[in-house]
Amino acid sequence: MGSLRLAMIALLLGSPAFAQSPTYGVGRAPTPDEIRALDISIAPNGEELPVGRGTAKEGALLFRQKGCIGCHGAAGIGGGPAPALQSKKGPEVPIWDKEHILPLSSPFATTVWDYIHRAMPVGAEGSLTDNEVYALTAYLLFVNKVIPEDQVLDKQSLPKVKMPIGDDYARLPEWKPGTPRLAGYPY
Q1: What does DSSP assign to residue 185?
Q2: Rounded to whole angstroms, how far apart are CA atoms 35 and 150?
Q3: Between the N and C ends of the chain, which has fewer C-beta atoms within 10 Å?
């Protein structure tokens, strides 16, 4: 395809590249509030985490109330259309056998929080309050034996949770950031 044709397709699809284009005379600069609303990434150190708190007991109740069971099964053990969230083998399994369980294969507890915050529940993504996300995160970490049931997760404690995968994510054989996964490796 020619570059003009690609540019026209991108313009028709509302490409951000053309949203503020003086050349084409369309769009406007986003407001600071619009930028803040889209800036929801949470780093491993938890710097961007919002104020809030949650426990596994609160998360267990939410897991039922929010319909998580319908997709992930009771206590997240699987059986629905979505992946299991609780390991059948426990947290002490080799790196290559993490069953792709988010709370076990994530190198940082903040990654679990971030994913729940962005992507759950399906069809109502982003509808959970910060306290609900902390509670659901605590519940999933508890059922996978990563934290005790009475631990309160908040902005300060969540980044300090030691994940079972530890630093193994950085020691994957022959893998370097930015390169595709290697054939034969599960991650």
Answers
A1: -
A2: 36
A3: N
| Nearest-angstrom CA–CA distance, 90 and 99 | 10
Q: What SS3 class is residue 131? A: helix
DSSP letters, 138-158, are: HHHHHHTTSS-TTPPEETTTG
Q: Is 113 helix (H, G, I), strand (E, B) or coil?
A: helix
What tens-digit pLDDT sequence spans the chain (187 residues)? 455 555 555 555 554 544 556 667 777 888 888 887 777 788 889 988 999 999 999 999 999 999 999 999 888 888 888 888 888 776 665 555 545 677 878 889 999 999 999 899 999 988 999 999 999 999 999 999 999 999 999 999 999 999 988 766 665 555 555 555 544 444 4
In sequence order, what DSSP letters do the residues of 43-112 get, joined into one string? Answer: -TT-TTPPS-EE-HHHHHHHHHHTTHHHHH-GGG---SSSPPSS-SS-S-S-GGG-TT-HHHH-SSHHHH
CA distance 140 to 146: 9
